[in-house]
């Protein structure tokens, strides 16, 4: 329009004269006309000349040189670099002090123990020692119980693998040259010669004696087992068939060494088969469904019998088994054991089934062909091993993919093993652990799990599996999470931890000197957590710095090949070979059901009388496909009965031309396994409140039905009267016994047994009845009561409704429940007592909670494709079930379709190379005195072709990013010109997880803002102002829009003593952060510009469309004044995308978001890797005119004011289960700042007092001689009674005093509510 007005054009042909030669699609433009003269009269537009765009200001980098980084950064050419080391911002503390990162973050205890050179701390008092011992005893007891439930040793001793110390073994003798020659000659012998050499060697006298002893012992064991079985048979003669079946089932469930002896085990199953058939003949029923159920049981027993290791069986037993097969309609060839026959008979006479080669009971025969019958009813029993074969390395027959895993571990290779839940990944971790334990006494394996619950579970399994008798002070196990320490990190060979803690250990310079080099393996379980938005970067940092091969395990990784390619490149950079093993098949199928909604509410009387509503509809996998489905999910599978129903449907519609797919033609062999019921079940609801509501409703309905039955049932009243009469008589009997005992004067005289074995003695009318409870049989009544008593006690204070639910076999599992409660119900669930577990996603991530059914109760935005697979995978665990059930309850059918057909999303994007991470790398180098591990780690990071599994940032841009991040750290006063951490490094580094809040805090300290706050005349105002600032930086939680409406807040403030909405930051703080943010923007804009200018040729033309990523369509080439005008006035940016430049934008960026979102193609910037201050500025008084989208929650400030837990939940909207974690997180942040300030003030004082060399001397502290076992565990906050160090300025000390006041006040209130 500007051009038309200036040139007074009247037609489009005047604008583009060459339009005649363009495409037909543009010919319509030739008819356009303009009234240029009239427009020129109406609008006065000055002539537009090509004005050159002013280039962005040249940014001058500060001087920097470090011999480890210099080699890599030599490829970064930034021309405007200062050479003066003095050109650096001055510190408010007056000097730059080198940081010393040798203390714990939350206290001043040395990281290293005393025996490795660490400082001695104060001795424990006797009361503290007793407290420590009690705490350790409780932890040991919990670990023992959990280990017993995980390893199946409930009520028995833990069966541990005992490993001998490596130091006790004789070192291997190396072969001499002559011995090697003889070995080579032996290897080259012919096959005939080797066979001659391998003739059996005659046994010595000692060997013959041992063989005779073993033979006699075997005969004795066989005789004892046979006599035991004959005695049991005789005892069961007078029992009913139902009672005998229960006894047999008990023998099989609780096998003794006699019941497992092969010949006895064979007869037990043979007798079981006899009882089932006898019961069937007594109650013949031609119903097809009952026939199928009983045939399933019979075939399961035949399968068990065939697998027994019996060398021979009696001929009469062989005939009985053949008659069974004939009666049910199956061939005997594949069902009977292929062993020799003996003339012996067995201990009972079996039922007669066949006469003259004909069945005496025709109703037992199946109605279908054996092949079709197996497809329909026996699919889960088919042999599903994946090329299994015996392997001496493990106690089971591993599949082929599992043997490949074993080979990779044995060859010390890096490994990524992906397999569905139930495929059998668990053994991988324990095999690697055992290998490390057997190889040495000081090698370390680190197991990393994403959650503390999984950490505790694996720790208990390790405790229950392994035992090693060390000659020194070494131990097997240590557990480290942020709030839990079990064992000695330096002395343990297996460390179980979370990724954040391992990241701290790997980046610790103290650990690099004596611990990191001993790490032989790192196992990253649930490695798909690397794609999480929060915490994913830590996983990447661990992989980037790992000093040893890693083992990655997961069941749910989207785009696994892409992720593996990056992982392999990282491992190869560390000189480790890498193996990728992907096993996509589940061991057990998942059968899916949809619960149909109904407006009618069903009545409930009892479990035994409950009628099936027939609203549970089976979902055939192919029925879930819609018209829009253009492909099948890779994890979709059909059961055998699904295939059969598909075949029948195709045949019924004449869609199959021949009989090649007929089951009888296609299948040549059949397999048999074992079938189980549908409980226990896990009901998943991703809302904690809904979980508890469901549990309460379920318990209330069971209790109401039980009360109604007790009031109306006559037998119950008779039973109560009988119990009451027995109790009265028992009191009389007890009084009589006591009288008789008093009359006895002879202490050695025999006494009557006063114990009573009558059922009335243990009867409790308050116990839930079996018909109104889902509870299974507890392993021990006494143990169950002890667990319930502990949960009800003052330590855990479990709700009354939760205890009532527990007694009925129902439990609720979510993160808001106490750790003690969660561990207890997990144990009871594994033991089979709890059979209905209602859970959020806390049980979806690797927790050993084997269920037969997973139920999705209601929809949720958190029910993603990944969460669906993790929750569904809890059903049908290998070793427990052959079939898993998945039920959808309360979800729309369309939502079920999307879930089942969904694909796993690719792992999320996280960028590990943050400014804090680079700062910690420098600390690792400096603090470890440039240890080999530290140098190699940094060099490998610099040389990687791709720094992240999702980032396309190549090596050249990584180096630019590193150089400008170093520039930021230099200007922030955290690094000196040689790359040595200085001053406030401790705060910035230890609060790495809060970035960019840690850098904002450092800047406000260095700029003097915090000194001004703390220097106010009123300490109360200083305390309040500083607390508000800390809440903005480290306690950020947004309030939903509808909750932050003024009328809602006003109403709540009238009821509760909470502000609810956090007051904005003062304008002076906002201005200071805004100025800092501008410097950051200029710095990283220069980064983009310098990289684009230096690599212009490799970046190429920016002609890729930003959304579709397709190439730009060729433009129409025409000559005209208008095109000339555009060419003269166009903006040609260097770093900005040309598509953004069409809006008049050049290389002057207005914000960090603007920079990241509009940078040109080929430059990959990550907004969270740039320490932007914009989020803090938006919530300051500077932004009053532009209200932020979401207000900040004042929960930290409010808790500091009133200390009321309930108010935080009711007024501030913090979920009760989250309150403790959020308050603890803030408390740990305060302790970190407090400790860092103490260390800084000490180092500043030492620098000003040259004659004092020791901090203890400076603070007038005495280092006493003490026993290592009696030192404090570091629970104290900083230095107890910390006094003002000499030469400390009053302003600096005032800052510390206010921080100390806030830390102690908050800590006191925090501990009071959870005391």
What would you say this structure looks like, in words?
It is built from 49 helices and 21 strands. It is an alpha/beta fold and 1315 residues long. The strands form five sheets. An eight-stranded mixed beta sheet has the order 10-9-11-7-12-13-6-14, sandwiched between helices. A seven-stranded mixed beta sheet has the order 16-15-21-20-17-19-18, with helices on both faces. α5 crosses α16, α23 packs across α27 and α33 runs antiparallel to α39. It is globular, with a radius of gyration of 38 Å. It holds the Pfam family DEAD. One of its GO terms (cellular component) is cytoplasm.
Overall geometry: globular
For the record, give the distance between the C-alpha atoms at the N and C termini, rounded to a whole number. 75 Å
The computed structural class is alpha/beta
Order of strands, main sheet, comes to 10-9-11-7-12-13-6-14
Strand content: 5-15%
What is the number of helical segments per DSSP (H or I, 4+ residues)?
Answer: 49
Largest sheet: 8 strands, mixed
| Structural Rg | 38 Å
Mean pLDDT rating: 79
Strand segment tally: 21
User: Unreliable segments (pLDDT under 50, ≥5 consecutive)?
Assistant: 47-51, 170-197, 669-676, 750-755, 1261-1276
- Assembly classification: single chain
- The level of helicity is 40-55%
